[in-house]
Amino acid sequence: MPSISSSILSFASLLAVAQAHGVILGAQGIQGSPESVGFKVEPELARNCTSISPCQQDTTIIRDAEIAANVVNECGRTELSGNIDIGENTENALAAGAVTQVKAGTQLKVTIHQVNADGAGPYACDLVEAGNNGVITQNLTVENNVPGVNGFSQAKTQQFEILVNMPEKFSCSGSSAGNVCTVRCRNNALAGPFGGCFPVQQVDVEPSQNTAANVPTSLSLDKVFKQVSQDQADLPDAIAAIQEAGSEEALKNAAAVSQLLKQTVTSLPAATQTLDIVTGVATSAAASATPTAVENGRNGNGRNGNGRNGNGRGNNGNNNNADNNNANAGNGNGRGNGNGFGGNFGGFGNRRRTVFRA
Ligand SMILES: *[C@@H]1O[C@H](CO)[C@@H](O)[C@H](O)[C@H]1NC(C)=O
Ligand SMILES: *[C@@H]1O[C@H](CO)[C@@H](O)[C@H](O)[C@H]1NC(C)=O
Prior knowledge:
This is GEgh 16 protein. This protein is an alpha+beta fold.
């Protein structure tokens, strides 16, 4: 993945370019599950204008050339925020209980807001089953596509609902939950492509327990060399960009934007996963198939694991610990107290949620 600095670089150096123009306002999978929202889509931003600022500021630009140059990752960038960190945004969405659910063969309703002419259809969607490893594993069929040819039509400030079909066979393995995929949709406008990414949680798959040794992706030697030389070329600008971003004025600007847009991040304490020393497999803190946004924010005491709680409390409904005995009898193993990823949802409800408001 590109570094933060390269994303800032890209943001700075490309500011002057694109005018952009389709936004994923929502994606609804299985009925009754939460709705996902496109990464970096700002709910407070006006949708009734076509001007570059503010109405195009959170549309996502996803260009293969920028991805290949390691300027952005596979979900591209927005004009307001630069490179989209898929992992970060997925974890934020999980914590906020804002990840829609899917199963093999289910359909997603994806609401696309067309800002102006080149936010038109057709949109093509694909899937990153590992969430953020950069590998597009399947193309998805789209029905009821946004009207348009080559990304153009006369529609503007208008919303369309496209239908995206999940495959019969797929296996989401991304995120701390171990069962989250990233869906990416984008049109074919030459000033774009425009579109966005959002997370989906697969509820008919066993959440993945990763071990470092079985992570499958690799780059060719050629790509590694290219990336190294690209990164070396970028570094001076990237360092300058991050210095600039830390300047008083830049910080003031960022704070003003954050306040205007009422940006919030729900924050939960992270689970601690314990790996078996022989197999590398997690012996505790199994990922949860169904992290649901549960209301009560306080019974499992927000300080998981670490030797204080044993399994004793906050443990209701979470017998995943039964096979943890090797982990550390008596000290409450990893996330000992029944929260979060314990294999079922004693789950998220037990973790304190903090909402930060800028
Ligand atoms: C556009 O929407 C914003 C709210 O997002 C509202 O304050 C504003 O009055 C609207 N402007 C027009 C021209 O309708
Ligand atoms: C998805 O479709 C594109 C063409 O649009 C093709 O190049 C790519 O190989 C396909 N990806 C997969 C995983 O089938």
